[in-house]
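hiii, so i know i said id send this last week but things got crazy w the move. better late than never?? heres the sequnce for the chain we talked about at the cafe, plus the structure i predicted for it. fair warning i was half asleep when i ran it
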Amino acid sequence: MCSDQGAPIKTKAVKVSLLPDTDPGEAFAQASRFREDLFDCLTMRGDELFELVDALLCTDGPVTSPVDLTLVAEHRRGHGAMYEALNSGNVDVPRLRQVLAGLPMPRAADGRLVLAVDVSNWLRPDAPTSADRLFCHVYGRSGRSSDQFIPGWPYSFVAALELGRTSWCQLLDAVRLGPEDDVAEVTAAQLRRVVADLIEMGRWHVGDRNILIVFDAGYDAPRMAHLLDGLPVEVLGRMRSDRVMRRPTPSLKEYALAYPQGGRPPKHGKEFRFAKPETWGEPDAATVQVTDRYGTAGAMAWDRIHPRLTTRSAWIDHTGELPIIEGTLIRLQADRLPGGGDPLPLWLWSSATGLNSEDVDVRWQAFLRSFDIEHLFRMMKQTLGWTRPKLRTPEAGERRTWLIIAAHTQIRLLRDATADWRRPWEKPAEPGRLTPARVRRGFRNLRPHLHCPARAPKPSTPGLGRPLGSKNRRPATRYDVGKTVKRPESITERNRLRP
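okay and structure toks below
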């Protein structure tokens, strides 16, 4: 039973779930405000959608079947209402994005915001009646040779990273990638919305350090820096180890000394081949750090390294002279890996220039923290059952995704007010180191302290439905899988495809 006024209900279960020496009032107040804002964002079938979020948090163990959530005591409606809400409900996504951006943000060691961008797939291999499915790349368990491409719905997530090793992230946005979308352009538009919301909600002010956005190897970091030009952000991305980039363009004086015979000054400097150390030269910054997990980690950085762009692929429609996108190239080499494998060098590219040794350390440490988002994806899929429902329409999948984000946000807001609710065979967690799954275990006992705006259900009787034995005369439409837009790779191919 909920208390709209937030009055504490003293029961034995609640005493076990609360931290004994902490005043949880502020955590409860923040979580209650978020729940009120969340309910306001559920503009259609809001009562059912709100109770579905509570059922996700209050059920025991991982969510294995969505219909089982309707049997949880906190869910007061039937299974028909649940499917009707997912299929026909509505979530005011722009407003919910602003609510998430207005929450307290984690900060890096130097006080800046660090955002991670990554894609997670909702696999739908046996759903021919579901539209907008793409071939999603799935890594195999026994090596690169077992990788597969499985139909599904890919989602691009943006999350704020925390300081140090942790399984916590603050989700800020999610966008489903469609068959006609260019991933880089959609991600850039998504990040522009997120940054605009952070500025509007007062989480970034003029004079603060630029927001650091971390990408993995699936994104072209220089192109993302070009697409995000004009924002107070810095792009940090992983580069393939076989890339070839260019050194800074030599000045006229440097060129005259190197080539006294004259000639046209070059637009780019000499080649910088990642696989050939003889082309590297002396680094502009170098640093060595001793870590617990990776041993000695050495980093070298070269300033004003840029790619040599050509009028192909993503730049085929670029008008005017191709830009020179300079940044800092960082090479990180560790002694060992936590799993015992052979550590290969890690190449990173930052859109910032003129970095010193301390700045280089901040960048590669922030990139390692971006892998914390993988713990978030595992929590969403294995514990909250994000991809469990067999929903037909992609719109229903998007509603389900935002409900999962709302559930995870409540867990994060209450983590400082929750005691360790552990199994008898589990080790006690260190203070302040509770995982999201352990915080979720005590949510049912914390819920009476939170505001519950959902209204009681009205009595109703189910409809008759289709008569028994009758055939379905409106079969669902079948959809193909894959991209529906072919983008040319060269000018010749573009001209050939034009009518």
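btw Residues 11 and 439 are 18 Å apart (CA to CA). thought thatd interest u
miss u guys!!
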